[in-house]
Amino acid sequence: MLQPGNMWVIDKAVEDNEQSDAALKTAYIRGWVEPIENAVPKGKPGSDGSLPRDPLFQGTGPLWRLTEGGWAVVNRTRLWTLFAIVVSVLSFAVSGASFVFSVRRLHS
């Protein structure tokens, strides 16, 4: 909370540009996110990280939350990534073992 005024400050927030706006609207259509508040004041710090003087906020916009469907997509993606890592490690182990066996056959 930023004082005075009890203003929310989100560290490392998603940049507010056309790409993120399009991605959020697409996720909203798919049911992955939903707006929980509208007309939330938005502002950006200065290039040196300081607060802007006047006006403190440059506009307003929605505050989004991830729905249960969105969490399901995130978790499914994580499981696929974990599965891909396990398969690649097993493939590396099998190729290493076959290399060791082939070297032993050449020397015997």
Jot down its keywords:
108 residues, alpha+beta, 2 domains, 2 strands
Count of spatially separate domains: 2
* Shape call: elongated
Q: Report how far the terminal alpha carbons are from each other.
A: 72 Å
Q: Report the β-strand fraction as a percent range.
A: 15-25%
Could you name the ranges where pLDDT drops below 50 across 5 or more consecutive residues?
Answer: none
Biggest β-sheet: strands ordered side by side in the sheet = 1-2
Radius of gyration: 25 Å
The biggest sheet, with number of strands, parallel, antiparallel or mixed sense and barrel status, is: 2 strands, antiparallel
Order of helices and strands: HEEH
Number of helices: 2
Mean pLDDT: 84
- Count all strands and give the number: 2
How does the helix and strand content classify structurally? alpha+beta
Fraction of helical residues: 40-55%
